[in-house]
Design a protein that fits this description.
Layout lengths: L12 E4 L5 H11 L5 E5 H17 L3 E8 L3 H9 L3 H4 L4 E4 L3 H11 L6 E5 L7 H7 L9 H15 L3 E3 L4 H8 L6 E4 L18 H7 L3 E4 L1 H4 L4 H18 L8
Parallel strand pairs: 1-2, 1-8, 2-3, 3-4, 4-5, 5-6, 6-7, 7-8
């Protein structure tokens, strides 16, 4: 598994471009300049701007995390991943999946000989907590906790060959401890500075907490995109990341 051994603090922040149009997203990217080199493109922007915008980001030297949470029957997943444009697919850093072992195997088959994008499995959305689990599995809530579900999904994904996981809140620390014998990436969404609103993220962490717990990359959207001075927010976050890296000791490739 070809995972990064060392990741600079400034490369660990992924800014989520959750905009409706390419123009809005491009304005932020240009404003942030060299301060940010890694961006997430999810369904909101991808359906509006598509591959042309992704390719523009790649051509400008930015790294791209394509957050599409692909999940379907194996034949469809394999075809979808295989149909990504050759000029972009191998240069993408990450792609998210949502499903089971067959989903992972199909995505790997679609990726073929490429070493990118890294395939990351969504464990549980950061907008969900134990109460939501009870709504999804009536009658089963007493015997299965959110921690259990996340561990089960994580093991399945890693056993099937995923390079990493999408995990939030306390699950970041739990996964690092529970799977301490494995090397894999953790990307933590829903990151919020100490005083910022959590919005719809029920399980969120500060940048410092997420890195200390073992996250490799942090995804932050609204605290940056909605700020009057986004560059100042980014610099503050990177400073927190640097402090957290100094305060922790995690083996290379494991956070």
């Amino acid at each position: 598994m070809n995972l990064p051994v060392e990741i600079a603090a400034s490369e660990r922040l992924i800014v989520a471009l959750d905009f409706d149009t390419a123009g809005e997203a491009r304005s932020l990217v240009e404003g942030l300049g060299d301060t940010v080199g890694f961006y997430k493109v999810g369904w909101q922007l991808f359906l509006g701007a598509g591959w042309p915008f992704v390719e523009d980001l790649l051509e400008s030297g930015k790294k791209v995390f394509l957050d599409l949470k692909i999940g379907d029957i194996g034949t469809t997943v394999r075809a979808a991943v295989g149909n990504m444009p050759d000029c972009s697919a191998g240069r993408l850093e990450m792609l998210t999946l949502q499903g089971g072992r067959a989903t992972v195997q199909a995505a790997m088959a679609g990726r073929g000989e490429r070493t990118r994008p890294w395939l990351l499995m969504l464990t549980v959305l950061s907008s969900m907590d134990d109460a939501d689990l009870g709504d999804l599995y009536p009658g089963g809530h007493d015997s299965a906790t959110l921690v259990d579900v996340i561990r089960i999904r994580a093991r399945m994904a890693l056993d099937a060959g995923c390079e990493g996981l999408i995990a939030s809140g306390e699950s970041v620390r739990d996964l690092r401890e529970h799977f301490s014998d494995r090397q894999f990436l953790i990307v933590a969404p829903g990151i919020r500075p100490e005083a910022a609103a959590r919005d719809d993220h029920k399980r969120s962490l500060t940048p410092y907490q997420a890195i200390r717990y073992g996250a490799d990359y942090l995804v932050m959207g609204r605290p940056v995109t909605g700020a009057d001075r986004p560059n100042d927010v980014v610099r503050s976050v990177i400073s927190e990341i640097e402090k957290a890296l100094q305060d922790r000791e995690v083996p290379p490739g494991a956070g």
